[in-house]
Amino acid sequence: MLDNDPLWKLRHALAGLALALLVSVVLAAFLGAFVGDLFGDSYGRRVAIYSALLLYVVAGAVVLFVKVAQHEKRPLSPGRVLLWTASLWVWPVLMRRRSSAPGPR
Q1: Cβ(51)–Cβ(25) under 8 Å?
Q2: What's the rounded Cα separation, in Å, for the pair 33 and 25?
Q3: DSSP-assigned states of every residue in 21-57
Q4: Cα–Cα distance between 79 and 57 in angstroms, integer?
Q5: What sign has the CA pseudo-torsion 100, 102, 104, 105?
Q6: Which among 28, 53, 85, 94 is most buried, taking Cβ atoms within 10 Å?
Q7: pLDDT in tens, 51-101
Q8: HEC per residue, 12-27
Q9: Per-residue DSSP letters for 87-98?
Q10: What's the CA gap between 47 and 69, in Å, rounded?
Q11: What distance in Å separates the CA atoms of residue 75 and residue 57, rounded to the nearest whole number?
């Protein structure tokens, strides 16, 4: 029964992505506060920077899940969560590199 369930097949990717998003929300909060303080101690500025970072990370999560999740078969580990987290922050570079790679003709 579990062999036919698409969510069961994506369980490693879903768990890794959920944990990476949790870590990224905390990182975005600290980074937003730090960068906001560099450009003046304004709560509104910190919130705007945090919101932009959060939007960036969530967009990366969606893009990575669509592109990579069906290939993720390895069990979840701390290293995999760190890899997912790092991928959420550099996802445009990963997508550009993958799309510009020469394919078979």
Answers
A1: no
A2: 12
A3: HHHHHHHHHHHHHHHHHHT-S-HHHHHHHHHHHHHHH
A4: 19
A5: positive
A6: 28
A7: 999 999 999 999 988 888 778 778 888 998 999 999 999 988 987 765 555
A8: HHHHHHHHHHHHHHHH
A9: HHHSHHHHHHHH
A10: 31
A11: 23
User: What is the band of 25 on the pLDDT scale with cuts at 50, 70, 90?
Assistant: very high
For residue 37, how many C-alpha atoms fall within 13 Å in the half-sphere facing its CB? Answer: 5
d(CA 91, CA 85): 10
Q: What is the rounded CA–CA span in Å between residue 1 and residue 66?
A: 24
Q: How many CA atoms lie within 13 A of 35 on its CB side?
A: 15
- Residue 7 pLDDT more than 80? no
Say if residues 70 and 8 touch (Cβ distance below 8 Å). no
Which pTM was predicted? 0.79
Cα 71–Cα 63–Cα 20 angle in degrees, nearest 5: 75
